[in-house]
Design a protein that fits this description.
Helix content is about 10%, strand content about 45%. The strands form three sheets. The protein has a twelve-stranded parallel beta sheet with strand order 1-2-5-8-11-14-17-20-23-26-29-31. A ten-stranded parallel beta sheet has the order 3-6-9-12-15-18-21-24-27-30, with no helix packed on it.
């Protein structure tokens, strides 16, 4: 009996020694970062991590990272369903020579980024690629976020605030977001939606401002056999030396590309709204296109259709004209 008791005690001790290690490696549904945290911590509320990259490995799929206080939380690559929510504090992502946040998640994964300040280190001392790059995943939500100063222009495509280039069928939602001073020369801009292969993109951009970027919102269907469909609502695109709103498909190949512009303003750009290629269609409803060099610029078979309730006036060289009208019902 003593021998059996001794063996049982030894086994129990071994199990107890093992359990803390198992618990330490477990992933939490909610983790925390702080400007005075440390990535060796478990990322709990009382022992937070210091960076998003440090916290993400300790956060379960579908979980959430929150910020305790203002801080510089660094670049991160997201490979699973995840929310980073720092809406109530100043959560900075300052990068040089790289992307700010990269999403390469699973086909059913939804990623939400809320309340971030994503900042590219300014030239000439440094430059940064893109603010947010989306490669794979079911959907990306960007909310209450500032993205600025991504200047790098070679090789294409970099220099964008948000570069959305899914290889599958994915959705993009941007709301209450300010994107400014992105792109250099003739490359880059605020938002580029450019699926590749058989990828398709759809989504909504709402209540946002895109100011002083090389281009504002660009939809490019030339690299996919899928489709691109984006609804832009209650949004301003201004101050671009090229186009405020642009959709592009090649004369042959490429996917159907469409943009609905509702209750929005396109102003002080060289070209306000551009539609290039026979598979490109812009619909205008309740929107203002004013103060650009050229207001509307359809070309190479591209369509710009008006619901006849828009303000198209005061463009410096030419207001341009829609290629057709749509009746309100």
């Amino acid at each position: 009996m003593k021998y059996v008791s001794w063996r049982a005690s030894l086994l129990a001790a071994a199990l107890l020694a093992f359990l803390p290690s198992t618990h330490a490696n477990a992933q939490a549904t909610r983790t925390w970062v702080s400007g005075v945290g440390d990535d060796v911590n478990p990322c709990s509320r009382t022992a937070p991590c210091k960076t998003f990259a440090g916290a993400i490995s300790k956060t379960a799929a579908g979980g959430e990272i929150n910020c305790i206080d203002a801080g510089a939380y660094g670049a991160v690559t997201i490979t699973k369903a995840m929310t980073i929510d720092c809406a109530d504090v100043k959560a900075g992502v300052l990068v040089s020579g790289s992307n700010g946040i990269t999403v390469s998640a699973g086909a059913s994964d939804v990623v939400t980024l809320r309340g971030l300040d994503i900042f590219g280190a300014p030239p000439p001392s440094a430059s940064a690629n893109n603010g947010i790059v989306f490669n794979t995943g079911a959907a990306l939500h960007v909310e209450k976020t500032v993205i600025r100063q991504f200047f790098t222009q070679s090789p294409y495509p970099i220099g964008f605030g948000i570069l959305f280039k899914p290889t599958g069928t994915s959705e993009l939602y941007i709301s209450d977001t300010y994107i400014t001073n992105n792109g250099a020369g003739s490359a880059g801009g605020a938002v580029m939606v450019r699926p590749t292969g058989t990828g398709s993109a759809k989504g909504v951009i709402s209540s946002s401002n895109f100011d002083n970027n090389v281009t504002g919102i660009t939809l490019d269907g030339g690299s996919t056999t899928g489709s691109v469909t984006i609804d832009v609502r209650d949004t301003v695109s201004s101050g671009a030396p090229f186009t405020g709103i642009s959709i592009v498909t090649p004369a042959s190949g490429g996917g159907q590309t469409g943009l609905m512009l509702e209750r929005s303003m396109v102003t002080n750009n060289v070209t306000g709204v551009s539609s290039f290629g026979p598979k490109s269609t812009v619909l205008l409803s309740g929107s203002t296109v004013v103060g650009n060099n050229t207001g509307l610029a359809p070309s190479s078979g591209g369509s710009i259709l008006s619901y006849q309730n828009n303000n198209l006036t005061g463009n410096v060289v030419s207001d341009g004209a829609p290629t057709g009208t749509v009746n309100l019902k």
